[in-house]
Amino acid sequence: RVTPRVVVLPFCYFEHSFDCLLEWRHAAFVNLSWEQLFYRGNVQRKTPRGTFATQHVLHHAWSEGYAEFARRQSIPDKYIYVNGQPAYALYDEPYRTYFVPRSLLASRHALDGSKPWVFFPENYNWAFYGDFMLDAFLKAGQTAAEVQEMRTFCAESFREVMQWFGRLARSGTVELIVRPRPSTPLSDFRAAVEAVLPDIPASMHIIQDETVREWIMASDVVLSSHSTSLIEAAVAGRPAYMVAPFEIPASLRQEWHALVPRLENEQALVRATRVTAPGPEHAGLEQQGGEG
Question: What would the DSSP string read from start to end of 109-156?
Fold first, then answer.
């Protein structure tokens, strides 16, 4: 019953990314390409392929780098539109005033507004992927060795960091907000935390509500693993750190990771939670976001 003239997609890798596309062949399709900073472990699955994705869709590019990536997939220049990363502009005035303020977040989620807020948007995605998703990566050309490497790294890093967080939260010095990835069921994530910390401290809040943007703007410090939310935090003017108890495997590395200050042990993490303003070490990451 719906015959749209324009269809806007969050991503478009091939015809069956969305089954409805086959019914709307006369519409104009725009791919927002919501992920454009790839690593070796996901680039093959997230590369546009097939006649539909490469010859009938307008692809939104944050930068010339992604535009060149699209050209290598035989996407014509006329179907590539370089426009920066519009979402980063939402951290600027007047747009940032649209989002929920810290005071309301504190009220909604019983958080102490007088303490520093440490926000951790987690990205241990490979530890939570089910067999169906892993099979999809293998079918897209990822090697079984790399899949296992990334899964092991994420699982071990998750266990180690949750122990650090448990002790940090028990100190009572901060409000620690841990936000699972939207695609991970909250019950699954909480069960994984409880397998490491049977007694989750009162100051450690596992919250999937609200947007990453709102939590970044409301928090004092932003930590993550290899998530691009660290770039957003730098754009928003927040100190951003990569929590890295283990060396990131080559299959997960991205160029921008070199711009992020790393916290390789628990003592460094505790010190970072006391710094509520970005320093010179964060300048490179902020510039990366600005170029996006």
Answer: HT--TTSPEEEEE---HHHH--HHHHHHHHHTT--HHHHHHHHHHHHH
